[in-house]
Amino acid sequence: MSGVDALAELDARLAASHMRGQWKSEAFLSAAIGGPKPAGAPYAWRWADVMELMGAAERAMPESLQARRSLIFQNPALPRGTTHTINMGVQMIMPGEVAWAHRHSIAALRFIIEGDEKLTTVVDGRHCVMETGDLVLTPNWSWHDHHNKSDQRALWLDVLDVPLVLGLNQTVYEPGSGADQPNVEPGRRVGALRFAWRESIAATRALQLDPHHGQAYEYRDPDHGGPCLKTLSCKLVRLPPGFSALPSRTSASSVWFVVTGNGSLELAGDEALSWGPRDNFAIPNWTRHAIRNRSDEEAVLFTVSDEPVLQALGLLRQET
Ligand code: GTQ
Ligand code: FE2
Prior knowledge:
With 320 residues, this protein is an alpha+beta fold.
C-alpha cells in the first residue's frame, strides 16, 4: 500500500473512532497565514428598505409586548448575525406602546434615531430618557422595558452581542411576569447607562483628526474608563467635508449607522459601498477598508465593534 493510501485508511479508521489527525488542519491553518479569514461579507442595509419593511411589520404585528418589533440585519454570507459576533437592527415602538420587561445574558445597546423626553427605557429600575442621538446601554442580565409615552413613533438602533454569546453557548433568558420589571436587588451597580447626544457630539468634534479613522470618539464608562460594555465598544465618528481616510484593517468586526452625511466605504479591488443618512453597514473582521466623506458637509456615523473581547483575550490585531 502506498503512503497516501495508508494515511487515507488511517483517517477513515480515526473517523470511525471519533478522532482526527492534526494533519487534517493544515489547509485551515494555511488559510490563516497573515491574519484571520474574514467572517461574512461587507454589506449595506438601506434606510428606505428598512422603513418599508418596518411598516409591514407594524401591520402584521400591531403591538410590541413580550416580543419586540425589531428587524435584525442578517449578513448574506453568514449563517446568523450582522457580523459573526454582533447583531444590529432597528426597533420601532408606537405611541402608547410598552415593550415588556425581560432580561438576558446577551448585552444590548440602543442608539436613538427618533425619540424625545417621553420615550424611556427602564434598566434595572433606572429610568433613562431616549432622545434622538442618545446612546443607552442594557448591560447583560439587566431587566429592561421600553415605554413610548409620546405622540410620535419612536425608532432606535439595537446592537447586541447575540452571535458571540450563542457561540459561547451562554444564552440565558428570563421573561418578566408582566409589563413592568421586578424590583432589583438593592446595591446592584450597572455603571453609566445613558450618554447624551449633545455631549458625545461635542467631544467628537473636539478630537484631532486621525488619518485612518477621522475623529473617532469612544464612549467610555466614567467609573473605570473602559469600553461602555464588556463585549462591545461604541464610537461616534466624524468625517470632515471631503475627508478620505487612509486604508486599514482590524481583527475586530463592526457595524455602522449613518447619523448624517453621504459617503462611501472603499474595499479591496475597486469595490465600494455607498452610504447616506440612516443607512447601515457591516464590516467583517480583517477586511481592508477606507471610509470617505463624499460631500461638502460633515458626516457623522455611530459604530459598534467587538474590540473589547479581542483586547481581553489578547487577540486584537490592527494593520494600517
Ligand atoms: O429591546 O429588549 O432587537 O431583547 C433584540 C432582543 C431588542 C430588546 C432586540 C431584545 C431587544
Ligand atoms: Fe431585551
